[in-house]
Amino acid sequence: MMFLIRTAFWLVVLVLLLPTDKDQQNQIYGTAQTAVSDVAGFCDRNPQTCATSQEAFAVLVQKAQYGAGMLMELVEGQTATFGDSLPGPVAMPGDPGIMPVPAAVPLEPATWDATATQDTLNPEDREAAWGGPDV
Question: Which of 43, 86, 97, 120 could form a disulfide with 50 if both were Cys (CB 3.0 to 4.6 A apart)?
């Protein structure tokens, strides 16, 4: 039911935007052409803004390339580790029959010194800070 209401709404909006006669159609086309020429001439009117935005876009592209390179190194490093740990044939990209499985990483147990004390409180820390409503 909600789909029908949304569809009807957008159809009404579309019908309202359609021109009714040749004069209105020419006016819409003229307005569109003016907007396009205005956008096309923006850098001619504001060269400093365009230069700054080009520099910002170049930095954005550089950061995206750097991030993609880091991601590729990470993926290649992980797949190389996975491929080394596989028994038998190595998984090749595009080979649907073999799926690489990560090797279990052996963890060293943490050393625990039972003779060392864990008590780090001072005598002032052990005193009660508040004694109740009579204080």
Answer: 43
The amino acid at 36: V
Rounded to whole angstroms, the Cα distance separating 97 from 41 reads: 56
pLDDT band for 92, please (50, 70, 90 cuts). Answer: low
Token couple for 54: 């080009």
Which residue has 């038998």 as its token pair?
88
Whole-number Å distance between alpha carbons of 49 and 41: 13
Q: What is the 3-state secondary structure (H, E, C) of 41-90?
A: CHHHHCHHHHHHHHHHHHHHHHHHHHHHHHHHHHHHHHHHHHHHHCCCCC
pLDDT in tens, 103-115: 555 567 767 776 7
Q: Residue length, the chain?
A: 135
Torsion sign across C-alpha atoms 69, 74, 78, 80: positive
